[in-house]
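Thread: quick sanity check before group meeting

JM: Hey all, I'm pulling together slides for Thursday and realized we never actually wrote out the predicted structure for the chain we discussed last week. Dropping the sequence here so it's in one place. If anyone has concerns about the input, flag it before I start.
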Amino acid sequence: MNYYFESWTISKLLNLYQTNQLDLNPPYQRNDIWSLPAKKKLIQTIKEGFPLPSFFLYINKNGIFEMVDGQQRTRTFLGYVSGLFPDYERIYFKDSDKDFLLNKYNILIIIIKDVDDEKKVTEFYFKVNKFGTKLNRPEIIRSERFDNLIQKLIEDISASQVFKELELFSNDSLTRLLDQDFIGELLALIFFGITDKKDAVDKLFNEFDNNVENIDFLSGRFWEILFTIKDLNDYYPIKETRYKQRNDFYTLFSFILKHKEVDKKSLSYMYELLIKIDPEITPSNENCFAFQNYAFNCVSQSNSKKAREARLKFFEDLLLNKKNNYPITDQNDFENDFHEILHFYKFENTDLIKLGDWYLLPTDKI
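JM (edit): ok, ran it. Output follows.
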């Protein structure tokens, strides 16, 4: 790998982009993540004549410049020149000293060339950003493993209309690839079962790197569950319930993954029941330990194996109950979560609805 230094104007940099000679989004790069205040601060720095950190460009085998480091700053230039936002003094580009900004202010460009293995460019990007601009976990994974089949599967799922329609993530979270981070957790759940978050995704990448057979299995099972959840979402939007939250959605996904025996009709009723009990699931609900404990396991060590298993057990106790002869008592000697919840709502055994093999709480009385 060789490199050399040049001094460019902002105009030259933008011209390369506008003539398709500059790629701001090579596969290892992250998204446009800078906030508006950060962009305004950069423009102010330029207007005050202070220097910016170096930009790193790589000339790839096609003669195109790839932006290795400096993407956020370049996108800020483009946005300001296009009139998308003003500076801190509310001055837009059209009212600024255009000649100074575009032609007189200089930026230091370090151009990388003669790379014998293009993976070295990815490694360089990873090292610069990991220790410099604090990439988050999914951005690091993407930069290190952008050509990995598991990463490609994650990105395909993230980009799918079915997943997008669930609206589980805010725009800011999508920008930082938090949806991809979560999809990785769900894929790990399919393959390894419930584990601690910190272990599972790394293990998925490390042990099944580009194993086509495993990828096909993961893909098929994930899409099967995702379309099942889509049906539930069509009945009632998940985004309007607590189950859009990562911990709750993980539990719903776990339940569907584990219990293939639950037919579509029963699952729809169970989902309706989960929606009905939603308001009672809170750490402050001291009248029902089952609801309170589930809520605690959503906020305290929520990504641990123990908390995840406890949340799944709550779902199983509530939704897969096969008894209809619980003793009616005012004592706290409940057999399981279902019995306690039955008592909380003051239901009798005769109130239960039989659906398949299961006796469920009556949704119309909650």
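AS: nice. The chain has a mean pLDDT of 88. Residues 212-235 form the longest helix (24 residues).
JM: adding both to the slides.
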